[in-house]
Amino acid sequence: MTDPALDFPREAALGRVFRVDTASVWAEALDHERLTRIGVGSLIAFQGSNPSEFLVGMLDRVTRDLQEEALLDEIGPDGDVPVEIRQRDLLRVVLLGTYRAVDGIRKNTFKRGADSYPLVESLCWVIDGVNLQRLMGLLASQLEPEKRLRLGAFVADPTAEAVADGDRLFQRHAALLGSTGSGKSWAVALILERAEALAHPNLVVFDMHGEYTPLTEGDTPIARAFHIAGPGQPSGDDHALYLPWWLLNQEEMQALLLDRSEENAPNQAARLTHHVRTLKHDRLVADGKSELAERFTVDSPVPYDLAGLVERLSGDDTEMVPGAGGREKQGPFFGRLTRLVSRMDARISDRRYGFMFNPPADHLGYDWLHDFAKRLLGTAPGIKVIDFSEVPSDVLPIVVGVMARVLYEIHFWTTEDKRTPVTLVCDEAHLYLPAGNAGAADLRALDSFERIAKEGRKYGISLLVVSQRPSDVSRTVLSQCNNFIALRLTNDQDQAVVKRLMPDSMDGLTAALPLLDVGEALLLGDAIILPTRIRLDAPKVKPTSATRNFWTEWNSAPVEEDALVAAVEAMRTQSRR
Length: 577
Description:
six-stranded antiparallel barrel
């Protein structure tokens, strides 16, 4: 017979219930000495509807008051009733789940939520020592081994593993939030490290600052490195990624090239769309793909001639047509496309945008997109880190958005039984998933990610949103996340965002956000049965995001002037390579 995981002697009771509502349970402490050894966040067990059932909750608040109590047994001769001032310690506990020693034919089970509430006058106990170890072990054992994702250890019991359900963590999107220096990059590296141990992991990391490059180096890298091609990109670099202009759909192209405030913006958009459609059609016909030429749309990713597009727009802008009396007159678009053509010429000639407007010749081939899909969505290796650090900030949202949209649409059109789930790790998400006041470029990226957030689960594609400023991240994207790894957050606005995303019953837990130590996190959501505070394991390979020790280094490391000269030259070439 299996021994119960939770066993409490009656004489060790912490308190007695005196008030119950739908959100919390209040108890009066019976053991004041024991109460001084526990604190907010401790786990509390209440007697359930039968001796083998306990309702488990988290201590949310402790208050102390003084109560006047009439001593009716000590009434004086003159009829005066003496009054005694009695100290009361009151506990508020938020219910989290239900433990049953016997549940049908099963023994020792724990489920999220409560089927019933504690009765008034029922006892409660603090879960500590052996009981805590057994409960944590029970939580871990309820997950099938193939679903177990170890993230660290419980702060309440460092000997107990903090294990999440790997399936649930990624199925319904997750957010990893924390202020600068709280341990976000380490947490991402840890998750990637755990995923790499699987047979066929499939994650794409959008690395905004090149922090995760160490994971792609050394004798046993856990990921493959890619980077968006920079201005000084040498030819033949297998790690360089280009996003040729023909991958952009019309909304993205217009956001990149048009000024919507211009009077002629509608004319520019119309001619741009017309010529792109015509050029794509001509290319398909020339490649012998006449059937596709009858079915494609203007947004279909079909290569076309960029120089031909500029030439046609310039022709529209300067076109003269026959007029009355045999005289020429200005065409319908004469002078209306001048600024569009100028902006296109400026973009094309700017080497910073070479990854889009000046890719290698083979990127104009019809089959290039096949190879692109296999490089980023294939499983050799399964984790890919894309460095966006050299992308100009003014087009970063569009570039990241195009990348996400293309990967999503490839996945969308993959036959259902052939899809392998993929997760996009969105590092520094606040840079391209803004919460408000977004420009045209930002909105295009936002549309792509919000679509993935809303529909991606159906097609096996999910998001891991990483940000130090959750208050600056799209509410739509965050509200679709069902799992949160929340590290220390010191900003009131950021804390408020996390609290709004949590049930009211979690207020006590989320109140600890500014108090967390580096590497500590609150783990909440579908992936964890018991919301709790954990200490994350350190990854074996550290990302290059460590906080510099200013005072120490000023006392030990002189400035290397040769490095400054090299930095100036890198600034001139706009490339670190």
